[in-house]
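Notebook entry, structure prediction.
Reason for the run: the old model in the group folder had no record of what sequence produced it. Starting over properly, with the input documented here first.
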Amino acid sequence: MDANTLLRCGLLASLIASSGAIANDNIVVLQLGTAFSNEKLDIHIADAKYHHMFWRWGDSGCQFGLGARAGVLKVEDEETARLGGGARIECQWGNWVAWIPGDVLWLEQHEFGKLGHNHKDYGGPFQFSTGLGLGYALTSNWLIGYQYEHMSNAYMYDHNPGLDSHTLHIEYRF
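New structure, fully documented this time:
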């Protein structure tokens, strides 16, 4: 390892370990959503999420964390478990909070309905989910907001239809 690499590693380690970079927020989220109308099927999601925000960018109001989620995906009359985890980056300005989540998901079942009638095939059990959210902090602990979410398998399988959904986002911070 050369001196420049050692210096960069040392600077990065000191930035991460500095007291200004350590965050300690825990977030519990309830997320309820429905698919965009172009799906032409009755599709709903309900997820519970937990995020531990552990890294902050100084006094910017922005932070980063990791978390897990568990929920249900319902397509017409069939439902399946949706489990996963990933990262979240967020920034807060006054009472407004914007966030970008990114998760890897596992679906217990990925094919719904019968071919030719209310059929939806997500291609396989592993999916990726990303989104964009905006919320308003009602108190220091409670936030309510909206999140757009996109789920797809990123062409890991032959079939990659994706799912775009609107979600109501309710979170508690402690």
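Summary: Residues 141 and 173 are 5 Å apart (CA to CA).
The old model has been moved to the deprecated folder.
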